[in-house]
Specification:
This protein is 43% helix and 22% strand. It is an alpha/beta fold.
């Protein structure tokens, strides 16, 4: 079972996160693509690019789309395909979320969506001179 991963983000956020994750894990155990959106990019062009990337990632087990910020252009464009049964969209992309997803390449789409949510949430901690708290 192989779920495709698509990162949709502002500028190079997604590209840098996947590059960092690949360095940390020495590979990317799931097929992964990135769509980087600049301030002057045409949303209609990005929607076409999104559909093209989805076709390339689709291996019959679904696609998890992760975006950097809910309500922003990357999130809004990703949400245009969220009604599909084989796609899940999670916003708030961060490195702990991505690492958590990539560490579980054998999970199904629904399980990976949950790993993304918990990885993102549990990756946030308050660090102070007396220690870190999650």
């Amino acid at each position: 079972m192989t779920v495709g991963i698509l990162l949709v983000s502002h500028n190079q956020i997604g590209a840098e996160l996947i590059n960092t994750a690949r360095q940390m894990l020495s590979c990317s155990p799931l097929p992964t693509k990135v769509i980087s959106i600049g301030i002057n990019d045409n949303p209609d062009h990005i929607r076409r690019e999104l559909n093209k990337e989805l076709e390339g990632l689709d291996q019959g087990h679904g696609i998890l789309i992760m975006t950097d910020m809910f309500g922003s252009t990357p999130s809004n464009i990703a949400c245009t395909v969220s009604e599909r049964d084989d796609i899940r969209v999670v916003s708030g992309l961060n490195l702990p979320m991505l690492i958590r997803v990539l560490n579980y390449p054998n999970l199904n789409l629904n399980e990976l969506e949950q790993k993304a949510l918990t990885g993102g949430q549990e990756g946030i901690a308050r660090c102070h001179k007396t220690g870190c708290e999650s």
